[in-house]
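Why do we care about 3D structure at all? Because function follows from shape, and shape follows, mostly, from sequence. That is the central idea of this module. The next example makes it concrete: a single protein chain, its amino acid sequence, and then its structure expressed as C-alpha cells.
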Amino acid sequence: MVLESNDFWLEVERAIVIYILSESKRLHTHSRNGDIWLTFIDKAYSHLLSRGFGSLENLSEVILTPKGKLVDCNHSANQETYTFVSRGALSQRDTAGCTHVLYSGEFQHTTSGQISELCENNPSRVNESHLLRLYLSSQETSSGSSLGQKHFGAAQRHNQLCVMAAKDGRKGSLQIGQDAVIMSSLIDPGYHLVHELVPGRGVWLH
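And the structure:
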C-alpha cells in the first residue's frame, strides 16, 4: 500500500529523507478475534511520527480469525477512513440491519461517522481475513453521506502501482476530497518500480 500526499511533516523535518518504522515499533494487540497492528502511536517512538504522516493520521493492519469481530476505536471526528481487504472478506452491518460484504481486492471509502456505526466481522468460519485501514484527516466537516467502493483485481496491481483513490479520480480510481493518492501493488521478487515525487510531496510505503 502506498500513500502520496502534500506532506507538511517533510517541511518540518527536512533533515530526514527516509524514515524506517520497523514492525517492532508498531503497537500490536492480540485477542480471540485476531491481531491488530497500529502504526502511529505516541508511546511507541519519538515525536516525529506520533501524530501521523501528513494527512495520514493512522494506519492499522488487521488479521481477523474465522468469525472474528473487528472493534475499531481508532477513528475520530472529521476523519475519512479507507479499507482494503487483501485476503478473505469483511462483513459490515449498519444500524438499520443492512449487511454487505467486502471481498479480497475490494477498496472502500467511508466517513468516520459511518465506520463508528458499523458492526464488522469476518464472515468465514474457516479462513482468516487480512485488511488494511487508513485514517486520513478530512479538510472539511463530513456530512456523513460519503461512501465509495471498488474492486481492484490482482492483474491490475501486478508489477505496477494501481491507483485506487485520488482527488482527480484518475485511471478509474475512487474520487476523494483529499489531496492524496492511494496506490497498491503486487510485486514479483527482483522486480522494481519507480514513482516520481514532485517537490512538496511525501510518500508512505506500507
